[in-house]
Amino acid sequence: MASIGKTRMATEKATGVKIRMEALKKREGEAKSAMRVGVKMAAKTAPQLLASKLLCKKPNLSTNVSTNICTNTTTSMTSNISTTKEREKTDAVCVASVSTKNGSNRKIIVNKYYEGHKGPYFVCIDKMSANNARIAINQFDLSDLLLKQGISDIEEVARMGYGRCKIVCGSAECANGLVENSVFAAQGYSTRIFRHFVQKAGLIFGIPGHYSEEQLAELVTSDIPIEEIVRITRRDRASGERVPTGRVKLWFRGEQLPTKINFLYSKVEVKPFVQLIQCFRCFRFGHLAQHCKSGAKCFKCGQDHSKDIICSGLVCANCKGEHAATHPQCEARKSVRHSKVYDTGKPN
């Protein structure tokens, strides 16, 4: 009886994968047919507009932005995995525009806490100048503004640096309300819920490069909802173009990562994605050069000298090893990366 049950489960799983593959091929065939019909119609009515209207742009294989989907070739996906454009339309995010220093507008995605999020609920607030530059912030002035607004579900207001405070809220409603409150913007504050507060990023390895992000969205399943799939790319030295690697970045909803996801007939291990920030002024970790308050150092010898002076040897500015401060195998780099690894496992 046990063997019969296992055989039946294997058969049902294989049937499910086969159905998803057939549905994907069918949609691709329908999309190609629709494109051929569109080409014929456009050729009859406006030949001169054919190239500009129907030719899809080459996908942008950036390491941190999902590939754009040509509207003529892809229909809506049956899975809940979204692309960047689809993510902007969900309830958990909204789109806002901010002015940059050069006067142009930049679109940003404003994250919100999902319903059912277990916390903690963090909101980061920056003090901004008239030209949109971060300036010094006082946590007591910010606390006074929160009291005047009658916002009581606040557990802590902590200063995180020169121009940023972190507010710990007691509920998702309170945190989302801070982001939506226009009074803070009028007082020169910028409120943000960072994406890693509401989602966790993981990496899977060994995925063949011929699978597109749209195909992976159809074929990858997980116990924890996947919000976005991004193929990691690298720059080809010969051609200068970006080519896909075997690594795929997955954004999962909530506070934890699954240990494994299902891809075709296999279970693939999910490892935490850790984004390590290194200053290219002092070459320490955890901040950018524009916010660095330390003296400039040479990345080769770790000393403060002009570019005209030739270094006598390699000395890491962090671990004092015989290598440059940017070496990928630096022990200090490994230690910082290990300390930033997110918790994994399925939620209770």
Q: How widely separated are the two ends?
A: 31 Å
- Strand neighbour order, sheet with most strands: 4-5-3-6
Give the proportion of residues in helices: 25-40%
For the record, the count of structural domains works out to 4
Unreliable parts: 37-79, 87-91, 93-101, 341-348
**Would you identify the CATH architecture of the largest domain?**
2-Layer Sandwich
CATH topology of the largest domain: Alpha-Beta Plaits
CATH superfamily annotation of the largest domain = RRM (RNA recognition motif) domain
Q: Mean of residue pLDDT?
A: 75
Number of strands: 13
- CA radius of gyration: 25 Å
Strand content: 15-25%
**Largest sheet descriptor:** 4 strands, antiparallel
Question: Which structural class best describes the helix and strand composition?
Answer: alpha+beta
CATH C-level category of the largest domain: Alpha Beta
Provide a descriptive summary of the structure in words.
The model is unreliable at 37-79, 87-91, 93-101 and 341-348 (pLDDT under 50). It is flat, with a radius of gyration of 25 Å. The strands form 4 sheets. A 4-stranded antiparallel sheet has the order 4-5-3-6. It has a 4-stranded antiparallel sheet with strand order 9-10-7-13. It has helices spanning 2-45, 50-54, 84-87, 139-148, 172-180, 182-186, 195-198, 213-219, 331-339; strands spanning 93-99, 105-111, 121-127, 154-159, 164-169, 189-192, 199-204, 220-221, 226-235, 242-253, 260-263, 266-269, 271-272. It folds into 4 domains: 2-54; 113-192, 2-Layer Sandwich (Alpha-Beta Plaits), CATH 3.30.70; 200-272, Alpha-Beta Plaits (2-Layer Sandwich); 276-348, no CATH class. The chain is an alpha+beta fold.
